[in-house]
Amino acid sequence: MVDSHVHVWDPAVLDYAWLAEAPALNKPFLPTDLPYDGYNTRGAVFVQADCRDDQALKEVDWVSGLRTDWPQLAGIVAFAPISKGEAVEKDLGQLLERPLVRGVRQLFQDRDESFMLHPDTLAGARQVAGAGLVFDACVRWWQLAALAEFARRVPGLAIVLDHMGKPPIASGELTAWRSGMQELARCGNFVVKISGAGAEADPERALAPQALPFIQETLALFGAERCMVGSDFPVSLSHPGAYLDWITTVEHAMAGASEGERSKVAQETAVRAYGLETAAEQASPQEEKD
């Protein structure tokens, strides 16, 4: 599989203000902490971890330098301030000099509609599309309608929706979230990460029964060819056992799916969306021969 959403960080290297409010996460998480052994994770996409904005390039360079201990690293989604409008072109140019950069993200969660649809944000998004990069959209479920309008206004932008739009998993209320996801599904420039459920679930209850209806609905709306699996480690899966539990939960949600559909969710959608070099390139000579 390709893990389409992974974070690493070290507060001694870069500044992450949000970690002060997340004591369990306020420590280094490095490639050696990733629970990949035995899980056949053959590719991974690092997604910017919300360090200080002016450290975006440093974050990319630091993560790229970790590849010796992280052979699965196949792509990076870096921070880019698209709300700067056309001026973001300079930032994108610097990012494009880093060969692992495949996409960019500026967090939309907790922003109002006026931020997403501001002319400068839309102009910045068009710069991203023109640079041939993907945009990761991280929103909460009640922002999905605004995100759909954002997508319609920048039809040339390839968008990856993070974490199924952060649905209300703990409450189990599907209706309003489903309506927003239906609107996104009608926009042809979206693919979706089946990820992030742990952060939205009730920690006192088992994750799988809470998450399954939302995973199944996402698959029904977008199809396997527009869905990819991601762990959101360590934010959503804070201990190694939870990683395998999450992958198993996604597999259960796909009961009855064909091998082709499973392969799309497990790796092919991520490889296509981000332009990754992973499974084929990392296969051993014997595997290629077989």
Number of E strands: 8
Q: What gross morphology would you assign? A: globular
Runs in which pLDDT lies below 50 for 5 or more consecutive residues are 282-290
Rg result? 18 Å
Helix content: 25-40%
Taken in chain order, the helices and strands follow as EEHEHEHHEHEHEHHEHHHH
What structural category arises from helix and sheet content? alpha/beta
Percent strand: 5-15%
Mean pLDDT: 92
The biggest sheet amounts to:
8 strands, parallel
Give the spatial strand order of the biggest sheet. Answer: 1-2-3-4-5-6-7-8
Instruction: State the end-to-end CA separation.
Output: 18 Å
Tell me briefly what this model is.
The chain is α/β, with parallel strands linked by helices and 290 residues long.
Give a written overview of the molecule.
With 290 residues, this protein is α/β, with parallel strands linked by helices. The chain contains 12 helices and 8 strands. It has helices at 56-64, 88-96, 113-116, 119-130, 144-153, 175-185, 197-200, 207-222, 240-253, 259-274, 279-282, 285-289; strands at 2-6, 43-47, 73-79, 101-105, 134-137, 159-161, 190-194, 227-229. It has an 8-stranded parallel sheet with strand order 1-2-3-4-5-6-7-8. It is globular, with a radius of gyration of 18 Å.
